[in-house]
Amino acid sequence: MSQPPTAAATAAVPVAEVVLTGDLARPARLTVAALLAWPRHRARVSFECATSGIQHHAFTGPLLHDVLSAAGPVFHPARRKDRLRFLIAVRGADGHHALLSWAEIDPDFGGAPVLLAVTVDDTPLDRSGPQLVLPQDRCGARHISGIEEIRVDGGYPATSGAW
Predict the structure, then answer these.
(1) Strand 53-61 with 41-49, pairing
(2) φ/ψ (deg, to 5) at 8
(3) What CA–CA distance (Å, rounded) separates 41 from 100?
(4) Residues 16-70: pLDDT tens digits?
(5) Around 11, how many Cα atoms within 13 Å sit in the side-chain half-sphere?
(6) DSSP tag of 67
(7) Is the pTM of this model over 0.90?
């Protein structure tokens, strides 16, 4: 017996993956299902959207810091300031990009509770992929839907000369 067209179409849709790349000891490919294994945090967020006004949503997911720390960023572990030269670039399926600094999410510095959301308003995101959620932002421009890649880049070495 064949499946109804809607069930067949749903089964054919690939599960979204996030690729962790860059200056990491353990680059990875993660699905929403894999992210569900991490401790989840909940954030109720209000932000201004340029196209649809003020939005109110509840997101759950692991902290970006926890997920990236497990991937082993290659900064010097005994030198806290070495972390300050690392940037995090996030790219969504729609081409939207956002850039964060490691210090922004590091508990020793900014400690922002940035989420890799696996649900929005209790709706799972396993088909569309996780969302980057910055609860502290008033504007929603850095909220990235359908994350495809997160790149950690420490290519900004300390210089001995003047800028």
Answers:
(1) antiparallel
(2) -65, -40
(3) 20
(4) 899 999 999 999 999 999 999 999 999 999 988 878 889 899 999 999 999 999 9
(5) 7
(6) H
(7) no
